[in-house]
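Incident log, entry 3
Record: CC chemokine ligand 4 (99 residues)
Problem: checksum mismatch between cached and fresh output.
Input:
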Amino acid sequence: MAAPRLALAVFVLMLAVITVTEGMRGAGPKKCCQSFNEKPVHKGRVVSYQKTSQRCPVPAILFKTVAGRQLCARPSAAWVKDLISYLDGKSLPGEASNL
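Fresh output:
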């Protein structure tokens, strides 16, 4: 009689552990890049950027354009680094506006 109770307790414990660990993983990253824009994008066309989640299989930068589109780019590309530096310089905190 003790064996079925022990088996049931082990089963319930394993089910609880699986449920907790799946809940901790979350739903996954919102956006990962499968293909990349290889051509440089003009600075005036881009309004912001963000890095993709660390859970994505390939690291990438998502640029948001003036038109609202999102472009994927490789973070190692020289033009991507330049564009990120430009965008970071545009929005320095505490900088006074000329308006």
